[in-house]
Amino acid sequence: MSRDVVRAWRPAAVPGVTEVLHARFVRHAYPAHTHAAWTLLLVDTGGVLYDLERAHHDADRRAVTLLPPGVPHDGRAATGDGFRKRVVYLEDGWLPRAALGVAVRRPALADRGLVTAVDALHAALGAGDDLEAETRLALVRDRVVALVPSSAGGADDGPRARPGRPGRPGGPDRRTVAVARERLDAGIRAAPTLTDLAAELDVAATSLVRAFAREVGVAPHRYLVGRRVDAARRLLLEGVPPAQVAAETGFHDQSHLTRHFRRVLGVTPGAYARSATVRPG
After folding, report:
1. Among residues 31, 32, 29, 7, which one has the least CA distance to residue 20?
2. How many CA atoms lie within 13 A of 38 on its CB side?
3. Partners of 272 in the beta sheet?
4. How many CB atoms lie within 10 A of CB 23?
5. CB neighbours of residue 3 within 10 Å
């Protein structure tokens, strides 16, 4: 492929994310510019050369590049074959300002776990799985904070809807997880965001994810998908068309339902519904 290709969108239901960009550039070179947001850059093929605050850097598949807000940088392909990249732009407050200086000095975070985590974040964003994307983003922030120690405070100091409140000492307890589970059970069609749920329970989002996974056995987004698939199964066996089932169980559309239904049960919703007409024996 010799032409430049760009796909960009804003996942409005994922707090903190201002834009997502997937692009393939062969000819284009970015002039010096700044962003008002933190930028997480993942290079899939090729490499990118760039100057950040007058220092030369390169980005490739082995690292996640963290570009701070307000700092000029440019970008160009490292070879004549161009590059393919995926970018998440995040609100200025996603990391404390103390992290800015570290990111300017060392924007490349060569950590395999972080690369994997950001890749999973993009998969969720691309699929429109808002709660999963929010959960993945919280885990990405956790890992970035661990890799950028001067970003202050530790991994549990993620953004809350009530800034300045210290969060429950010791993290969420079993009762808190039980309440979170009840809220997800009650929100099959319109679940709360992870940010809203954490704020309601007065805990940090990443702490809630870890505590929920420890107590329940799966992360909140996996739990919610399972509950939605269970609800979909019942409706399908009652003869409700798959498109209507998707709308009534919180999936974005029929393809979204199909993808998760197949992953959980190994068959499509249509095949599952048709099985109800087959009598045993």
Report:
1. 7
2. 24
3. none
4. 16
5. 9
Q: What is the Cα–Cα distance from 138 to 95, expressed in whole angstroms?
A: 11
Side-chain half-sphere exposure of 24, counting CA atoms within 13 A: 7
C-alpha distances out from residue 268 to 49, 128, 241, 278, Å = 45, 19, 13, 16
Mean pLDDT in order along the chain per 10 residues (281 residues)? 81 89 88 88 96 92 94 90 94 89 93 96 91 94 87 44 41 90 89 91 92 89 89 89 93 91 86 68 44
Q: Which two tokens stand for residue 88?
A: 């998440």
Q: Could you tell me which of 157, 225, 163, 234 has the C-alpha nearest to residue 188?
A: 225
HSE toward the beta carbon, residue 124, CA cutoff 13 A = 25
Question: Which pLDDT score is estimated for 272?
Answer: 83
Q: What is the pLDDT of residue 1?
A: 52
**Helix ranges restricted to H, the chain:** 99-105, 112-127, 130-147, 174-186, 194-201, 205-216, 220-237, 242-248, 254-265, 269-275
Which domains can be identified in the chain, with CATH numbers? 5-149 (2.60.120.10), 156-178+189-217 (no CATH), 223-275 (1.10.10.60)
The answer to whether the beta carbons of residues 46 and 83 sit under 8 Å apart is yes
Quickly count helices (H) and strands (E) in the chain: 10, 10
Q: Are 121 and 88 in contact (CB under 8 A)?
A: yes
| CB neighbours of residue 144 within 10 Å | 24
Give the pLDDT of residue 70: 87
Query: Which amino acid would we find at residue 114?
Result: L
Residues paired with residue 24 on neighbouring β-strands, in sequence order: 5, 84
DSSP helix/strand/coil, 40: strand
Helix (H) or strand (E) holding 62: none
Residue type (1 letter), 55: A
Q: Give the C-alpha separation, 182 to 131, whole Å.
A: 16
